[in-house]
Design goal:
One of its GO terms (molecular function) is isomerase activity. This is 5-deoxy-glucuronate isomerase. It comes from Microbispora corallina. By secondary structure, this protein is mainly β. The protein has a single domain, classed as Jelly Rolls, CATH 2.60.120. The chain has helices at about 20-25, 255; strands at about 5, 15-20, 30-35, 40-45, 45-60, 65-70, 80-85, 90-105, 115, 120-125, 130-140, 150-155, 160, 165, 170, 175, 180-185, 190-195, 200-205, 210, 215-220, 225-235, 245.
């Protein structure tokens, strides 16, 4: 199943659980936990992970280190601090709120680390009704991992993101092979995937769309409803990258942004944590 509505991939303590096995691919995974009074304990096994508060705050204990993640009121209130969990690590989470754990199968064991919200690079992409915000908290340039890449994208109501549509399923100059997960908050919105793997789904908080191949985009925020998605990516390349190829039919869209104003609704909540 490529579109996974919220509630259909729950398992144990996880409100959402996507593994390489359940997705029928090799690298990418994602877990979502709704924390309350009960702590969540688990082992990372062969996956490196991040702990990213979507709302609320939490405490992370890993490898004997204790980290407090101050989090945020919601995904629309600015970037959050986060924690990195290496492979073969025992972990305990406690707190209140919704927490995302992007994951990727890995081989190098890096140290447990804390990522401050203040260090998260915030990028504004596009213009006009293609304006969106990207929180590059775990892009290849911003934070070191073995294979895992993760970014947050926030799209004001009525705008399109992941646009022009693009793909990363072929190893060639300027393009990498990457599996990708979209996890949504806010909405409703709509997600398109096509080119050998077709999806057109209405999405809202807690939904997931898997992209094993093909062009993906646009991600459309319904007018009046801001849309958030967490992108989790991983692939076979030793060097982490987000290299992609635009659909050549729509690549001209990028040049159309020149001279268009940036949507004043972005950035969302920078400095409000």
């Amino acid at each position: 199943m490529s579109h996974i509505p919220f509630g259909t991939a729950a398992a144990g303590p996880w409100a959402v659980q996507v593994t390489p096995e359940s997705a029928a691919w090799t690298y990418c995974g994602l877990r979502i936990a709704d924390l309350d009074d009960e702590p969540v304990e688990f082992a990372t096994g062969t996956e490196e992970m991040l702990v990213l508060p979507l709302s609320g705050s939490c405490e992370v204990v890993a490898d004997g280190l204790r980290m407090t993640l101050h989090g945020r009121e919601s995904v629309f209130h600015g970037p959050s601090d986060f924690a990195y969990l290496p492979i073969r690590t025992s972990v305990r989470l406690s707190g209140r709120g919704r927490v995302a754990l992007p994951a990727a199968r890995a081989t190098r064991r890096l140290p447990v680390r804390y990522g401050p919200a203040a260090d998260v690079p915030v990028e504004i992409r596009g213009a006009g009704q293609s304006t969106r915000q990207v929180n590059n908290f775990c892009s290849p340039e911003a934070f070191d991992c073995d294979r895992l890449v993760a970014v947050e994208v926030l799209t004001p109501g009525g705008n399109w993101s992941s646009y022009p549509p693009h793909k990363h399923d072929t190893l060639r100059e300027g393009e990498a092979v990457l599996e990708e997960i979209y996890y949504f908050e806010g909405g409703p919105g709509y997600q398109r995937v096509y080119g050998g793997h077709d999806v057109l789904a209405e999405v809202a908080a807690g939904d997931v769309v898997l992209v094993p191949r093909g062009y993906h985009g646009p991600s459309m925020a319904a007018p009046g409803y801001d849309l958030y998605y967490l992108n989790v990516l991983a692939g076979p390349a030793e060097k982490r990258t987000m290299a992609f190829c635009d659909d050549p039919r729509h690549a001209w869209i990028r040049s159309s942004w020149s001279g268009q104003p940036i949507d004043p609704r972005v950035p969302f909540g920078r400095g409000e944590n």
